[in-house]
Amino acid sequence: MNPKLKHLMRELGEAINESLSESEEIAKVISKIKAGGYDVFLVLEATIGFNKQDEEAEAERSGRKAGNPDFKVTNQDVKFLKSLRITLDDAA
User: Fold this and answer.
1) How do the domains of the chain map onto residue ranges?
2) How far is CA 57 from CA 2, 21, 34, in A?
């Protein structure tokens, strides 16, 4: 995987995580739930796909779908995704 894209994916994950953890609105609702006597845990699942714009545009022009590139996930990728509570299917 392109190191620059990998870095940007990591930044995106961190930005999503940070925005959720710093949201005053989410914190208020969680406080209300806890005040009602409940413990709270939040699990979000996200699917994020990437296509190079030039490949996608070419596929649209020619009326065909872009080919499926090889997709390799390193142990570091898995660790990062787990930190966001994202799991991968074994079939992927």
Assistant:
1) 3-83
2) 20, 36, 49
Tokens linked to 15? 């930005």
Q: pLDDT of 48-71, one tens digit each? A: 887 777 765 666 666 655 566 677
Sign, Cα dihedral of 52, 9, 75, 44: negative
Residue 88 tokens, joined: 């991968």
Residue pLDDT, tens place only, 35-45 = 999 998 887 77
Kindly give the residue spans of alpha helices, DSSP state H, lying in 1-92: 3-21, 24-35, 53-62, 75-83
Structure-block tokens of residue 59: 């596929």
The pair of three-digit structure tokens given for residue 74, joined into one six-digit string = 């390193």
Q: Using CA atoms, how far apart are residues 33 and 77, in angstroms rounded to an integer? A: 33
DSSP structure class, residue 67: P
Distance CA 29, CA 91 (A): 37
Stated pTM of the model: 0.45
